[in-house]
Amino acid sequence: MTELWLPSADPTAEDEKPPLALWRRLGFGFWVSVGWVLLVIGLALLAPILPLEDPNATGVGGRLEGPRPGLWFGADSTGRDVFSLTIWGARISLVVGFIAIVVGLLVGGSIGILAGYFRGLFDGVASFAFATLLSFPALILAILITTLLGRTVFWISISLGILAIAPVGRLARAQTLVFAEKEFVMAARILGADDRRILIREILPNVVVPMSALALLGMSIAIVAEGTLAFLGISVADGLSWGKQIFEAGSRATDLQTGPHAALFPIGVVFLTVLSLNFAGDRLREVFDAKELSL
Amino acid sequence: MLLVVLAVTFLAFASMNFLGDPLVNILGPIADESSGPEFAEIRAEARAEYHLDDPFPVRYARWVGDLTQGDFGRSFKNQQNVRTVIADKLPVTILLMAYAQLLAIAVSIPWALWAASRAYRFVDKASTVVSFGMLGIPVFALVVLLFWLFALYWQIFPTRFDDSGLGPRLWSLTLPAISLAIPLIATYQRLLRTDLISTLQEDFIAVARAKGMSTRHILFRHALRPSMFSMLTVFGIQTGALIGGSLVVEQYFGIPGIGRAVIEAIIRDDFPIVLAVVVIMSVLFVLINFLVDIAYTWLDPRVALND
After folding, report:
1. Considering the domain boundaries, does residue A233 fall inside one?
2. Total structural domains within chain A
3. Do B27 and B129 fall into the same domain?
4. Closest CA of chain A from B3, distance in Å
5. 3 state SS of B81
6. How does pLDDT run across B248-273, given as a tens digit for each residue?
7. Which domain holds residue B12?
8. B137: closest CA among A103, A61, A6, A275?
9. How many other C-beta atoms can be found within 10 angstroms of the C-beta atom of residue B49?
């Protein structure tokens, strides 16, 4: 640290470059990330027709046998095919992540928009409800809801969706507050548009674009949350999922020591998937200049 | 703030009571009326003991009243006093969380200063990639990875929680605390670096440099404090994530803390313990965010004047 270099501005800042097409502005890394996510989704969708071993079949490989051609990720402690387990495990993780964020966007988004547009008592109640939901530690709330509602794919997705309502709703409300004051809304009102038309034609398009950028980040949060529940043994009762797979392969020290590949391969896949969703969501957010979404 | 805490307790209490029958959870199968008259007496006894015949608002009021006096009721399953269970398990969880936060702050602040003073150079960009990667590892994957690497492969840390004294306890909590700290480090580093970079463009930094102060002095004494706002805000929010993470870490490393207790309680439908933990964690969360608000005035005295 001899001399302090005073940064004047980010030399790679967007505004210093000539405007590029949207797909160029998102950058190479964005498309690599999207490619990886699409690959995982594709494999998960096609799992039943791909030439994979039955993920529940034991003794496909030797006990904790290492990776080899035909058994790409090796075998776990009961000789199940780790590659097949990982692909099948993606199904629950992705479905739960997808439903959860759709629920969060639909319910949270509409409550937030209505609260921000109509203000008054409804806004007060909604904002208070958001603050209450947010002051539960997220995972404790998820555990509470899943325990009470049941451990099926549907209810796990719904309870993670409930978790997404408050942050999404807050953001939608804040965005609506900004746009409800804009001239074009006033112009529409002067032209005789009623509330419904203003909400759907004027407000909604402006709120949806930055929010959809956050859907990717939200999905990665939901996937991690499902994995966490599964890891704790309180997600979908009888199903394969990444969290469960990593717990089964990683919870016995002796197994982990002799055959770390059974845990490390799914960990790598989870890592790349979460990283890709984060990165793609982050790039979209930068490009659309939306605010942070956190759980 | 108090209102929010009250709403949290109401929501938790209501969901526990309406989404399941407490009597079934206390007694198991003999709670059913059809299970025979010989159990009628036990049923009546349990109903009286847990006041299950009272209307819901009365039960809620009694429960909140007991809470304010530090009485969390008794466990449904082994009739233990919930307060002793909590008092027994809370300290190690608090220790673990404080340890993780300390580690995170101790690593992220120097890292952010280092990166911000080299902003947009190659090393800074590389370190940004590293911290982004650290955000992408879920805690449940991280614990397995770190355990394998540091406890099994290199055998630096013990594989089990050791409660034989303060030294061994802290040492065996190091690996769990690192697992919790890694996402925190990345979060703090990213925020602080961004804020530092904008602070370093301010006039008073240029003045300090013109006076011939050393880089180290400028970074630590002038730039750091006004740059800590976002980091402090997130410190409060991240406490929620830390509570979630401590469930995973305690379960995996076998640490007898409150996170393990709540998972066991959930699996056994032991509502009083779950309720107590939900309330304590939410209060802790709200309290820390309240302290964060106070800390703003320390960072920047102008905040108080504007109020």
Report:
1. yes
2. 1
3. no
4. 9
5. strand
6. 999 899 899 888 888 888 777 777 88
7. 2-68
8. A275
9. 11
